[in-house]
Structures are given as structure tokens and as C-alpha cells.
Amino acid sequence: MMFDDQLPENAPLAARMRPRSLDEIVGQPHLVGPDGAITRLVTSGHLPSMLLWGPPGSGKTTLARILISTIGAEWRQLSAVNAGVADVRKVIAEAKALQRGGARMVLFLDEAHRFNKGQQDALLPVVEDGTITLIASSTENPYYEINSPLLSRLRVYRLEPLSEENLREIVSRALEDPRGLAGRVQLTDEAMAALLELSGGDARQALNIVESAAAVTDEGGTIGPELVAEAAQQRLLQYDRVGDQHYEAASAFIKSMRGNDPDAALYWCASMIAAGEDPTFIARRIVIAASEDVGNADPRALQVAVAAMQAVEMIGLPEAQYALAQAAAYVASAPKSNRAGGAYFSALADVEEKGRLPVPLHLRPAAHRRLTREYGYGKGYLYPHDYEGADVEQQYLPDALAGKVYYEPSDEGLEKQIGERLERLRRARRDARHGG
Predict the structure, then answer these.
(1) Residue 341 lies in a domain
(2) pLDDT category, 374, cuts 50, 70, 90?
(3) Is residue 323 part of a domain?
(4) Read out DSSP for 150-193?
(5) Three-state SS string across 326-348, please?
(6) Tens-place pLDDT, residues 12-35
(7) Is 264 in the same domain as 310?
């Protein structure tokens, strides 16, 4: 079973212009250039199981088809969107029959991240023993979406988004190539610029827009930017709530708040909301930033963030956009300190290194403290409110860590005042210890 080389004239432009060899592929030089990883595979004649990972329209399916055609193996194609375990088992049975006859089968699995754990597990044994050579494609990060046992048996090749120069070459070829529009229409420079911007690195999207615009343009006519915009209808948001775009946008959002840039924080917040992100996910990121990055430099940031999260839960979108915007802007604009979190993880490191150390007797519950009085184990617990300033020199850490300082406040915002107070208390305790 081979791919059809001939397509009907009414096939989509993107299908008619699909590259037929590695030489025709535009972009991805790290894979299909003279020294590219895929080029070396083709030269060697060896086709291992692999996963092609990249954004929509970057050439994953095209590359898979070329690889399969190059080695001339029997192949089957499944889309994880609508295939089930029964479909997988049928392909496995066919592959085993071919194997008994000395032939091999390649399975091209599109949108592999859509397969659940059970479906992925069904493929694992036959991929492992070589019954099937699997070429999977995914727009999502496989390290999040593909089971580790299966992923460990696949070579992962990353396809990058196509550049504007790449798209320009692809569109120009489609306008002139006999397989494409064969010079029937032209694009103005302004239309080409608009098309490149609207396509977002997706070759299929670019060719679909050109085809739609050409359909309403007389032969020999020119396509302008207005027609491109009409054909595109609206910008395609390159975002998936479980994929790379999800993690990249969330990362940019968090780093913008940490970096004191409310404008960027609001942009990334808006981009996630516009793309359909779960608003509670955004709210949780703001709460985390309020504690991790603002901390005690402005404790109100956590209050604002938690209130925004509650507002999202109570009223939802679209009204909750105001609460998310308010909280994101506040956290981004607030003074920053990560000293409290850093102090906690220093303490945690001691816990992990030294184990759970004994609690000093004078800090134990009342029943335990009777041992202190009756058997003379040290002094009893001193109630701070009985002393001036509600503070008294007393050991609270385990004996093995006595005197250890974890929390050293910064000079940012309210934390500066916290630091000054702690320094006064620590100085007074030192003086008390030394009789000063």
C-alpha cells in the first residue's frame, strides 16, 4: 500500500503542493538539510520508530509520508482522534501476518497525544519487538503526553515553526507551480505581508487562505490585503491548553509578573484568556507568584491574588477578567522578595539531611512538660506575652540546629520593616544571653 502520487484537480491546494521528496521540503534544515538527522536516516536505509513533534503546518505528515515512501514498506495510517484499541489491534494482527511472510509494516499515527494510556500501552510490545515501525506525530510536548515506556522506544525529532521566509517560499511556489495555481492569480506585497502574519508559521493555513482568496478572484487578477483578511476571517490563535503553547504562555506570564512588567503580564493573561484557557489555571499562577515572588515584601499581594481566584470561582468569565487583570497587575507591580520561600527550602534541606530532630522538651505539650519540672530537664516553656515586647530569649529549634538562621528578610517593601524588627529582637536576645 503506497501513497497516491496523483491527486484530483479539486484536491485542496495544500495537498496538491505537498512535497514529494526531502529536497522539496522548505525549512527544518536540522532534519532535512545535507547533514540533517532525517537525511542521514534516509541515506542509511534504516527507519527506526520515531515521533515527529512540532506545531501545526510545520511538515510532520509530509515528512512521515516521504520516509515511508523512501523505504517502500507496507504502511497503515491511524488518526488518534478517532481510532480506538480495536483499530490498533487490527493493525497489529496485520503486522504480525506480514512479519511471518518476511515483510515489515510501518504505522503512521497522527495526533499521537490523543491516544490514552491503554491505547499507547497496546502499541508498546509490538514497537519494542520490531513487529511495527511506528512513526507518530504530535503537536503536543511528548514528554507530557506520551507514556514514558513508549516514548523511550521512539526517537524524538522536533520540527520548528516555519519562518516568514519559509512561508513566502511555499506560497510563491504554490502560486506558480502547475500543481498549484499555475500563475492564475498574484498577491500584492501588502497581501503577502498580511498572509504571512495571519498564518502564524503554519504552511497549511497559509495555503488554505491563498486558495480561498483565489477562488473569488478572476483569472489574471491580483489578491490584495483586504481579500486575504476576509479569507482568513480571523487570526488563528496558535495555542493549545495542554500543549507547548499552554506552557510557553504560562511561563511568559509568570516571568513577566516576577520581572515587574505589568504590561507584559496583562498581555500574556489576555492571550491565554482569548485562546480559551481555564481562568482558574491563570488565577492559580497569580496566587503562586504572589507567594513565591512577592512574599513578605507585600503580603497584600497574596490577599489580592486569592480574592481574584475566589472571584473567578464565583462569577466566572467574562466578568472575572477584571479580577484577573487587577491581580496580575498588582503582583507584577509589587516589590519582590523570595526570601521566605528560600528560607523554607533551606529548612527542608536540613530536614532531609538530618531527619526529624527531637522537639525540645520545653516546647512539647503540657503533659510532656511535666518531665521538665519533675525531673529537672532544663527550664520550662517561657510564655512570650509575659515579657516586655512579647518576646523572651528561648530556644525553639532542635538542639542540633540551635542558632541557625534561615529567614533573612530583604530590603524590599514591607519586608524591610520585618527585617528591622527581627534584627532588634535578635540583638536583644544576644544581649540577654551575654548579660548585656
Answers:
(1) no
(2) low
(3) yes
(4) HHTTSEEEEPPPPPHHHHHHHHHHHHHSTTTTTTS-EE-HHHHH
(5) HHHHHHHHCCCCCHHHHHHHHHH
(6) 888 888 898 888 899 889 998 888
(7) yes
